[in-house]
Amino acid sequence: MNPARPSLAQILALYEQPFMDLVYRAQGVHRESFSPNQIQCSTLLSIKTGGCPEDCGYCAQSVHHQARLAVTPLLPLEEVLAAARQAKAAGAQRFCMGAAWRSPHPKDLERVAEMVRAVKELGMETCVTLGMLAPGQAELLRAAGLDYYNHNLDTSPEFYGEVIHTRDFQDRLDTLAAVRNAGIKVCSGGILGMGESRRDRARLLETLLHLPEAPESIPINALVPIAGTPLAQAEPIDDIEFIRTIAVTRILFPHSYVRLAAGREQMSDALQALAFLAGANSIFLGDRLLTTANAGLDRDAQLFAKLGLVSA
Ligand code: SAM
Ligand code: DTB
Ligand code: SF4
Fold first, then answer.
1. What is the pLDDT of residue 2?
2. pLDDT tens sequence across 142-192
3. Which of 104, 116, 154, 307 could join 109 in a cystine, given CB atoms 3.0 to 4.6 angstroms apart?
4. Is the Cβ atom of 189 under 6 angstroms away from ligand 2?
């Protein structure tokens, strides 16, 4: 097998291995590039919440859905900086700012660039997720010192249209190309448990694998079901299938950080430990994701102590 670009059939064959073989192999791959007991920690802040014109079926922030949500305008710089200082003190290396936009208006982008500059000055890595970017916008963010741009492909090209109708898969790929060309590191992954098939999960990974360069960071989110959204009643992803997906991601992307992203609040310590064993080495640290609760600092401190993990 060509390790750089396995085919869809080869990716599916990885999934079909006996679970013990798959996880053992993923842990082996993990240890070749990463320290097995270190977890990268990022903290999220929603800098502009709700009122989004897109209709992503999973999201609380879309104007098309009826989720209960306090809509807030772009936060003032001081509020963002206070949250970043807190995140740093809690042990996060990276501060990720998310805005519920289809794409940023130039005026707002200037303000986000200010936030990036200020957070960098605290000595933290920076990440933003602002929707699609127009030509020149990625360069402006890079000039402000942005390290990462998060823009998820979410699912396979085939299933994408079942979940989102206000943009298409190619729009996502175009933004990822703009980010990469501006010299910003790419954070792109997906969501499991939206009713997609294993083939869709494998196609998502295949698409990420066929980008000109692998994303440096790959978030694997378990859907957080939100009342009032079209996916509120989706069947949760099976735990073993979730871990298989983490392991296959680790094997396909030996040098990328694989993030055990949304959904940890609902996961047992044992399931999270399995995810780390399968090669996940990054989490969101803190009490909140964007609009929903996260596992929380106390619980994570206990989990890290139990497992002998360190934030690094
Ligand atoms: N509006 C921007 C965009 O969509 O690119 C940035 C913010 S958006 C909330 C960032 C990502 O969060 C989405 O692409 C999706 O993968 C993830 N996400 C949103 N709602 C989620 C949910 N309920 N469960 C799991 N992941 C979710
Ligand atoms: C990612 O892959 N997951 C994060 C981050 N990138 C922006 C967002 C998770 C959101 C979970 C639902 C919410 O809190 O609204
Ligand atoms: Fe808007 Fe992003 Fe939510 Fe989609 S995921 S509705 S683009 S905030």
1. 40
2. 999 999 999 999 999 999 999 999 999 999 999 999 999 999 999 999 999
3. 104
4. yes
> Which residues are marked as active site?
52, 56, 59, 96, 127, 187, 259
Structure tokens at 283: 């989490």
Please state, in angstroms and rounded to a whole number, the distance separating the CA atoms of residues 92 and 85.
10
Q: Say yes or no: CB of residue 261 within 6 Å of ligand 2.
A: yes
Q: Is the pLDDT of residue 72 over 70?
A: yes
Domains and CATH numbers, the chain: 41-311 (3.20.20.70)
User: Rounded to the nearest 5°, which phi and psi values hold at 228?
Assistant: 95, -10
Q: How far apart are CA 118 and CA 144, in angstroms?
A: 9
What's the pLDDT tens digit per position in 10-40? 999 999 999 999 999 999 999 999 999 999 9
Q: Which amino acid is at 290?
A: L
First-to-last alpha carbon distance for the chain, in angstroms, is: 33
For residues 21 and 165, what is the distance between their CA atoms, to the nearest angstrom?
A: 39
The Å distance, Cα 55 to ligand 2 centre, comes to 15
